[in-house]
């Protein structure tokens, strides 16, 4: 499979501060790729490098098969970008900005623009300074989605949108996905959105990639919580590879177990004898919290 | 008005370095003149001769206002005649910054939700700015007293500056209510200051000629404060007039504030087109620059009309008094008095055009800081194209406004040589480019210090204002590119300095653009 974005060992320093410290990001053509990380992890910096706005200090990166720094202008004809914090020119109307950005990219579909204006319920005649944050976000989204491009780079595109509009956004991206002619890099904090839209995702922390793969892959990396009431003493269970946070209270045990170690752990439980059993699958939230919280340490 | 005190403390905290800077530094400037005037004109006779010459020199009267006496104090107060404009500028910028700017970016909303009265932010901004102006006046008075100048005159001198600040604080308060954007509010206030200056110039220059238009000065708050005539008649009633003006302006602003919605101006926001008729980087730059260009062009045309219209008075003075004419010839280094006058005004026009050039260039930095540059550069627009479309306006815009000023000057003075007057204005262009190029250089290499680009026109203004009075060394005068521009009409037209300045500007621009190519955006 060809890769729309291929970044390996990306390093970016601002003076003494290292923003990216060996980041890997691989986005296959045609997929919707989630890009996650706690605030300040380096997502926006990485995106700015992909856009040729900033130059990396180390590693290598190709975007749509080209060098994002030296071939920026040519590559930008093939992509559209929605920044996390959209600002508009105060004196231009939303409609003017959509047309302008589309034309600067190399063309947009008027019909698609009209359709998106309708679906996002945006009045394109208002001046930039009078839009709320959510409406500014819509302007940038419509400009990107109506543009005739093969790659969309969206930096927290739904921040500021109301739940209704978030749903519209999800629908539109799902339609794009079904058509399959566009690649989307989606930076987001909204787990439900990531779960609904993304084929694969990359989690970064402190400027480094900590996890990458499909959601199913990632669930494998997480732990299931088991609570059981046993018939006898659970000898050897606590020391079993893959069992964590083991707690014993009389005949009740509670522990977390890696997905890989689930089978041996259950066999052990059966050997001892199980009176009752509760198993909690790993939730997405736990997955992310575990990845994010390590940043604090 | 609840909470005004707290907001004043907030303003003082936010402006703790900039406020003392202008209030104290500007207040100390005139004291420096005392020693230099004493050195330059040690005897009474020297002063009388200098005062006679200066009082009827239209170029001097344009810059510094009318002069009616020859005492040391009067000469110093007159020579500081451009200071009220600078104080007024600082005051109106401060008021707009703490009213409309805060409201536009949403800080006022944050504060307004607390237990703060509707009028408190406006009151706090006005009180703080007027207090800073009074501090400036007090510093000036103290400094003059320290130089052994008479007490009443020193107080009047301090009051002149303080009241100029207060009056334009009031103007800023009104313009802050008119539009929803701080940029427009600032522009309107600065235009008001410009009109006020032009009216003062028109009236004062007419007064040394036939006097038919001398009433124009009385339409201008800048004219009022100059009519205090410190150390001379110490006229106090224009001070009362200015205080009344300030109170009325503040009241008008307070009433306008209650007539509008939060965040809005008095003029309702209109709907615009739903689709764009343009789609190129250049068309975008045109949209962003056209208002600025139009405003400056109109302003320059008006300035040219005044400067040209005043030309007639210069001729009258020259023909009236052969002795004076001779002295002028020596002073100006030119045989023709009118020529030297127009060469002088061309220098002023050039310096103002440089301010426009710097402002237009720094739009690039504005675009970068707001995030708009990111949006444009993430499309198929290269950095060269993006910067080039803006620089088109910051380099050719000054040519347009200088032409407007030159043509207007020449039209308003039909007795003159049209081509020579226009040429005198246009030769300023290479010097203007050097200052614009310095702005490109800072933007490209040291973007965070872009505002430092304003230091260049400030230094050139300083050199223009104090350079000859203080008889500074030639190397210091040579720092300003305007020193090297041929003095036309009348002077020797030489292409060498123009070519050199243009080459310097081109080199600085090239280095700046190369820096932009290599750096992070946003930085």
Task: Tell me about this structure.
Chain A: It is a peripheral membrane protein. Chain A: This is ABC transporter ATP-binding protein. Chain A: It is found in: Cell membrane. The complex is a heterodimer of chains A (297) and B (523). Chain A is an alpha/beta fold and 297 residues long. Chain A contains ten helices and 13 strands. Chain A has a six-stranded mixed β-sheet, with helices on both faces. In chain A, strands 11-12-10-13 form a four-stranded antiparallel β-sheet, covered by helices on one side. In chain A, strands 2-1-4 form a three-stranded antiparallel β-sheet, with helices on one face. In chain A, helix 3 packs parallel to helix 5 and helix 4 packs antiparallel against helix 5 (133-145). The longest helix of chain A has 17 residues, at 163-179. Chain B is mostly helical. Chain B folds into two domains: 1-26 and 83-267; 279-523, no CATH class. Chain B contains 22 helices and no strands. The longest helix of chain B is centred in the middle third of the chain and has 40 residues, at 281-320. Chain B is globular and about 70 Å long. The mean pLDDT of chain B is 88. The interface between A and B is large, with 47 and 35 residues.
Order of helices and strands of chain A: EEEHEHEHHHEHEHEEHEEEHEH
Q: How large is the radius of gyration of chain A?
A: 23 Å
General form of chain A: elongated
**What's the CATH architecture name of the largest domain in chain A?**
3-Layer(aba) Sandwich
Q: Oligomeric status of the shown chains? A: heterodimer
Which spans of chain A of ≥5 residues are poorly predicted at pLDDT below 50? Answer: none
